[in-house]
Amino acid sequence: DITARKHNEEELFRAKEAAETANRSKSIFLANMSHELRTPLNAILGFSALMNRDPQLTAEQRESLTTINRSGQHLLTLINDVLEMSKIEAGRTTLFNQNFDLFRMLHTVEDLFALKAGEKGLTLLVEHSPEVPQYLHADESKLRQVLMNLVSNAIKFTPEGGVTLRIKFREESSAREESGDVGRLFFEVEDTGIGIPEADRDRIFEPFIQSTGGHKAQEGTGLGLAISRQFVEMMGGKLSVVSEAGRGSLFKFDIVVAPA
Ligand code: ADP
Description:
Layout: H1 3-51, H2 59-89, E1 98-101, H3 102-119, E2 123-128, E3 135-138, H4 140-156, E4 162-172, E5 182-191, H5 212-217, H6 224-234, E6 239-244, E7 248-259
Parallel strand pairs: 2-4
Antiparallel strand pairs: 1-3, 3-7, 4-5, 5-7, 6-7
The protein binds adenosine-5'-diphosphate.
The site of adenosine-5'-diphosphate has 22 residues, from helix 4, helix 5 and helix 6.
């Protein structure tokens, strides 16, 4: 008599169907949310930036507009982070490799953060060893996002001193012969900031987890490192940190690249 077993099988099948339907609805919900949230936000950002050009504004109005714009930008970052994380969890993130100029990208990242570092009186150095190839084949956008996140954290959690981004390259005879010459890029983002207590060093890579510095800053979602770690793993490497509370942190990661 296998009635009970048949019954269990049917239950399992129904549960699987229900889970798949729920997952599909989640993906559709997220895709719609992304659009629904970003459209009005773009209007807020665009029009507040436009209004700020009006020469007849009073100083007070200008300040209010700047606050609206800054809060909008912040909200946009949060929405993007939450959506990115959901996309990763839904298994809908894929690599998009293309040829690009690594040096130009590093300049863009440096330019983007030079002002912020300068305002805090921090030095921002970008150093790459001579063997690092200028033209690469890799996922430029994911690499940029990881670098921006690490450099932005380093500046955020460093009250004095500076931030250094170092890049090295090593050729590798890969198992994937068919893909031709490949190599590995090694990145380090070092700061002289507040550091991370030992108890938090692994946890900060989990979604929504912040350490003491993150709580105090009262900004950010605690998603940046979780997203960065996933991206780095997709690109064939590992992201890790060494840090001493009070003396700074050193985040390092590597990725597989092919010279273009
Ligand atoms: P967020 O920056 O949005 O809080 P992240 O995932 O990027 O989220 O970082 C998680 C936490 O890790 C931060 O809140 C902070 O407590 C800690 N952290 C990250 N980078 C550094 C750093 N360079 N120095 C000190 N603490 C850091």
